[in-house]
């Protein structure tokens, strides 16, 4: 029997050998996930420079408290500080959410309403404001019935769906094939899923979810602490994904499918690989922040094999990698374009803030600054990387390549790019080119490498004064 009670609440030097460990670390524990290889046409480097990658804009329809209450009212005076930082909460957006069927502040009522909506082919459900729907019963691995039709859950001021502290381990929501879930103005929290994946929300193959002006916070799972997109489609808009934890991959989000993130903030998530987000497949991140994450590899963003995507007008800052490297971004093989992106103040015990393991990447009109790593303070390149009108400055390497470390397998091309005031403990304060690697500076385009310590360049780099 479900009870309800109402009360006011006072409210981480690598090379190829290291890579196999990376993929083992990144994929271990993901049994049951849809890891089918994604087919990607390999473009020559000139094509990558000539044109940005196709935009990925998927089409979709629009620790828990100790109280054990089933559903309770919140007086509205207390709320998680994360909400104040949320990009989405500052943008009120345009238009109005559709009105729907009111759902009283009782978890049983919400369960019944979702069951009814599934049976009737979908619905818009208006949840009560200042209400926490406290879930106590495990329904096939989740606290709520699986979404199998188009269902919109409209929240309001301080509307929360939460797993009770004393309840069995389960995520909050599952979206199955043909399910189309839309969340508006809701907080999803307390999902706890040890030994399996998707702490807050799981989207299965054929399913889709749109997260609008909502918060996915304080959830835990083996992989995908916050949201697991397992072969479906995920859109995150004007939302906050924060303080979620995964013991394996994808602290905030793990997407094996298609994901779009716009005007949102990923903040303070933790995982072994991909603290903020881990991706395999198509993705796009625009006008967003990826900050304060922690992982062994890929502190902010970890890109698994078969990735094609774009990061635009986004800040990736204050992320940490305690293992091989890639404090801000790591991954490959991939096709990646970064435009007007700031990568700053990230720290890696190992290799670079941006670590391109394999594949093609273009970084344009961007800034890579004040990052710290071992071989490669700002960038570690082992693939084919082009920097266009980009500034690499203030980065530090505890070994070689303060600004950029170009590995023996790497091809690095710079157009109109400035590499200045970087530092390395050994050599290559600006750029270090390992034997076998290729660096094209294109001085005529306005590229220069100056004011770096202890030297500007080390290795075979034509046109660079040491």
TrEMBL record:
Q: Where are the transmembrane segments?
A: 22-43
Q: Which UniProt keywords apply?
A: Membrane, Transmembrane, Transmembrane helix
Q: Region entry Disordered: which residue ranges?
A: 54-102
Instruction: Extract the InterPro entries matched here.
Output: Pectin_lyase_fold/virulence (IPR011050)
Give start-end positions of Basic and acidic residues composition bias: 59-92
Protein name per Swiss-Prot or TrEMBL: Putative outer membrane repeat protein
User: Organism, per UniProt?
Assistant: Salinispora arenicola
């Amino acid at each position: 029997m479900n009870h309800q009670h109402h009360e006011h609440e006072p409210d981480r030097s690598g090379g190829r050998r290291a890579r196999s460990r990376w993929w083992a670390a990144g994929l271990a524990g993901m049994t049951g996930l849809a890891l089918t290889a994604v087919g990607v046409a390999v473009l020559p480097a000139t094509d990558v420079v000539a044109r940005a990658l196709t935009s990925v804009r998927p089409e979709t329809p629009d620790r828990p408290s100790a109280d054990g209450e089933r559903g309770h009212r919140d007086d509205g005076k207390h709320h998680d500080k994360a909400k104040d930082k949320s990009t989405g909460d500052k943008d009120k957006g345009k238009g109005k959410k559709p009105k729907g069927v009111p759902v009283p502040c009782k978890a049983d009522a919400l369960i019944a309403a979702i069951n009814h909506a599934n049976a009737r082919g979908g619905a818009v459900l208006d949840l009560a404001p200042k209400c926490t729907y406290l879930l106590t019963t495990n329904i096939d691995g989740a606290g709520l019935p699986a979404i199998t039709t188009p269902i919109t859950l409209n929240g309001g001021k301080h509307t929360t769906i939460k797993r009770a502290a004393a309840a069995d381990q389960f995520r909050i929501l599952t979206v199955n094939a043909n399910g189309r879930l839309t969340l508006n103005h809701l907080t999803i929290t307390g999902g706890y899923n040890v030994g399996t994946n998707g702490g807050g929300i799981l989207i299965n193959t054929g399913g889709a979810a749109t997260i609008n002006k909502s918060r996915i916070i304080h959830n835990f799972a083996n992989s995908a602490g916050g949201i697991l997109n397992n072969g479906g489609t995920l859109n995150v808009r004007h939302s906050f994904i924060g303080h979620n934890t995964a013991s394996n991959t994808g602290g905030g989000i793990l997407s094996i499918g298609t994901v779009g993130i716009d005007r949102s903030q990923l903040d303070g998530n933790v995982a072994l690989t991909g603290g903020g987000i881990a991706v395999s497949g198509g993705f796009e991140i625009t006008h967003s922040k990826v900050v304060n994450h922690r992982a062994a590899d890929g502190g902010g963003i970890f890109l698994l094999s078969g990735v094609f995507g774009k990061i635009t007008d986004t800040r990736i800052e204050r992320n940490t990698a305690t293992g091989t490297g890639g404090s801000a971004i790591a991954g490959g093989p991939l096709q990646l374009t970064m435009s007007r992106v700031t990568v700053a103040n990230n720290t890696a015990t190992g290799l670079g803030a941006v670590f391109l393991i394999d594949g093609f990447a273009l970084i344009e009109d961007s800034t890579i600054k004040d990052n710290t790593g071992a071989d490669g303070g700002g960038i570690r390149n082992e693939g084919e990387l082009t920097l266009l009108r980009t500034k690499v400055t203030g980065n530090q390497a505890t070994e070689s390549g303060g600004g950029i470390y170009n590995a023996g397998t790497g091809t690095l091309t710079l157009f109109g790019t400035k590499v200045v005031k970087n530092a390395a403990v050994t050599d290559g304060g600006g750029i270090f080119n390992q034997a076998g690697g290729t660096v094209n500076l294109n001085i005529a385009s306005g590229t220069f490498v100056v004011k770096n310590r202890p030297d500007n360049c080390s290795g075979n780099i034509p046109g660079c004064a040491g």
